[in-house]
Amino acid sequence: MQYNDVIQQLIGPEPLEKYATTDVGTREVLVDLQNLTCADLFPDGYEDADMASCCLSGLWLLHNFLREGHEICQDIDTPAGSFWHAIMHRAEGDYSNSKYWYRLAKTDPFHADISTAAGQPYEPEALVDAVRQQGILAVHDLVTAEWQVLFNHCYTEATGTL
Predict the structure, then answer these.
(1) Which terminus has fewer CB within 10 Å in the chain: N or C?
(2) What is the distance in angstroms between the CA of the first residue and the CA of the last residue of the chain?
(3) How far is it, in rounded angstroms, from Cα 155 to Cα 162?
(4) What is the pTM for the complete model shown?
(5) Tell me: the pLDDT tens digits for 109-153?
């Protein structure tokens, strides 16, 4: 998927490689994210404010700023908002709460897309268990595919493009 320069700079290959493998993001990215609004992410406008906010939450989470990502996604009452919420709780190690939010998300359509993108089966509660038991590096390809598929979905819904 082709994103604008603002998003592309924040997503780039390095952040995806480091996704969920560090405790917190860098100071430089923090400054960029603190000044970022949905209007900045979508300079041509957006059709769905919740999905635009989901993208903003996803970018905070990509860079491992869990508190900031949580502040956004906890107020989004949609399946995608619940999905981001689940990812955040998994990243902070609150595994039972993560499973709760995955159940609320009811996003079965994502599962096949995530499986395809990762080249392996995807089941969110099993992923939570794998992270808890084996650590994030053992399933990094799967959590990265999960992030990318969800972000692409939210971006598409926010912009109204297919």
Answers:
(1) C
(2) 10
(3) 10
(4) 0.94
(5) 788 899 999 999 999 999 999 999 999 999 999 999 999 999 999
Helix (H), strand (E), coil (C) string for the chain: CCCCHHHHHHHCHHHHHHCCCCCCCCHHHHHHHHCCCHHHHCCCCCCCHHHHHHHHHHHHHHCCCHHHHHHHHCCCCCHHHHHHHHHHHHHHCCHHHHHHHHHHHCCHHHHHHHHHHHCCCCCHHHHHHHHHHHCHHHHHHHHHHHHHHHHHHHHHHHHCCC
Q: Where are the domains of the chain?
A: 5-159
* 3-state DSSP assignment of residue 8: helix
CB 64, CB 22: distance < 8 Å = yes
